[in-house]
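[step 3/7] fold_predict: job queued, chain A
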Amino acid sequence: MTAHPSATADVLVIGGGPGGSAAAALLAQRGHRVIVIERKVFPHADRSGALLTPRSLTALRQFELPQLEQFHRVRHVRITSEGRSTSTTWPNHPQYPQYAAVASRSAFNQQLIRAAVAEGATVLAGHDATDPIVERGFARGANVTAPDGTTFEARSEYTIVADGANSRFGRALGTFRRPTWPYALGHRATYLSPLHDASEIELVVDLRDRSGTPITGYGWMLPAGDGHVTVGVMMMSTSPSFQVVNPAHLLARVITDHGARWHLATEPVAPGSGGRVPLGMSVQPSAGPTYLLIGDAAGAANPLSGAGIEAALETGALAAGVVDEALQTGTSAALQQYSQLLSQHYESFYKVGRLTTRVLGQPTMSRRINRLAATRRPAADAFLRLATGELRPGRAGIAELAYRVGRTISIVAPDA
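[step 4/7] structure written:
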């Protein structure tokens, strides 16, 4: 996987995470020469759990991953607030399974990168794409640094940028994040726990700062079935005290308040980690004449939950389809479709999500919604359906009605 390639390909993929691996696998499957530049070396040591929502599992089916069915299934979600909690199942939806899965990030990423290699993609692990090669305004590949420090050019007709949040490669191409749109900060740590095989995850929705003011966001406990439980927090920038709350300290308080229920070990198996997560397609432009952005590099994470795996897989598939058409037709005009496809798939829901995140930044509203979700099963069902985007077309449930109200408001409101 680290052998030096001919350094020429039809498509260069910057980043071998879920979105980049998915795009690479699909393009290689269609007969195109693909090179993936990935900074990490596989397998890497990240034992933290990744939640594969029902929507993520549906997107993964096209890759026929051999271990997908072996990942730890979770069929219930417990929502906790102010000492009270309600357990519910994953939403019943015509397109998605009624369960999710938790997998270690290292195992999940390795499965996807192996799928890309199996289809014929070349993966250069441990290599760093330092900056793009731009000729007459067109991205034509990347300057790459190998593990031994040597450098070379990897040239391609098209480039897919998938190097994650705060994409350095994307910024070098001129992308930017809309500064007024919400974003999130996340932090997580993984612990040994005898409850690692529980079939239920827990969401703690009553996060507060030291003065007791509600924080927009949530904490989570993910049992991975391999001896570990990952605990994390996601804090939205619309929180009143966002600028003064350290997410690592917030995670420590969540562990102190709720960790005993999960019988967590005294210390995590590795130091905690986290970072900034751009949300709601906040990174622009998402496409150029010869390049596309996907996943966190495009700010594609769900603005309500901060979840990014499903968006990474979906945008990776959309990008692969557009680039495949461009290569088949011999013209880059097909890339102009990408932004429109993103709009069709995400714009309406993401705008409502951004607006809702702002509303939840009001402490009074946040307390009421969180209390309802933790004490009323119908409210918990609607909360989960909205947060995951698993709305049912043509139905008149609580979640669907709430979404329609939000969509109506978003039409006349300033851009969220």
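[step 5/7] annotate
The domain at 8-71+103-179+279-348 is CATH 3.50.50.60 (FAD/NAD(P)-binding domain).
The first strand starts at residue 8 and ends at 14.
exit 0
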